[in-house]
Amino acid sequence: MSDPVENIKEEQVFQSIINKKGLNKDDILNLNWDRFVVYVDLRQKGKVVQSGYNDFTLILKEHKGESKNRSLILVVSESSKLKLDNLLEIISRSKSLNLDFFLAIVDKYGDITYYNMSETRLSK
């Protein structure tokens, strides 16, 4: 069984850049660059990352080879609009999977700001 970390598109492009191999034009054009920037940032920090459940999410794992997931990361551009209902749905999904939730906002310069978010119920 192959390691899920090795199956991620970002990993293939990342390794191609490191190994100075030629990249396929379609691989470059179809890549979510904001997610790629977050992926590279997390890898540079020594984190183990794999694909999330869609093109805008990543899963942060405890250790390579370990099946336990640690966090769900939603990657958005600072110029994109995000509906509150969608955000609450993703937070709820991460809570049901027992994952911490982070919102990674990528600005136009590629700088990333991470926000740890959770659902809170206020008592009356």
Automatic annotation (TrEMBL):
Official protein name in the record = Ribonuclease BN
Q: Where is the tRNA intron endonuclease catalytic domain?
A: 33-114
One of this protein's GO BP terms?
Answer: tRNA splicing, via endonucleolytic cleavage and ligation
One GO MF term on file is: nucleic acid binding
Q: Which InterPro entries match?
A: tRNA_endonuc-like_dom_sf, tRNA_intron_Endo_cat-like_sf, tRNA_intron_Endonuc_cat-like
- Show the Pfam families listed in the entry: tRNA_int_endo (PF01974)
At the highest ranks, the source species' classification is: Archaea, Thermoproteota, Thermoprotei, Sulfolobales, Sulfolobaceae
Stored CDD domains: tRNA-intron_lyase_C (cd22363)
Give the top-rank taxon of the lineage listed in the UniProt record for this protein: Archaea
